Amino acid sequence: MERGDSVALVGQNGVGKSTLLKTIIGQLDPASGEIQLGANVQIGYYDQEQTQLNTKKTVLNELWDDYPMMDEKDIRTILGNFLFSGG
Length: 87
Hints:
Layout: H1 17-24, H2 59-66, H3 72-81
Helix pairs in contact: 2-3
């Protein structure tokens, strides 16, 4: 993958998509080989069960806590790209 690329993991349930992502972000150790990230790479990941989210926070505040230096407008743009809307 190169800078600016977008990637989608697509596959049937149970084939290892979540396991791969958890390995890339360091939640799981690789079964073999190694994971090497480029310089200045930041990965954001929220699991499908949303176990890391605080139910008392808005989606905006969840992202802002992870990226406190980002402008509100930029965070709202990202959320809009994922079809979140509202206050």
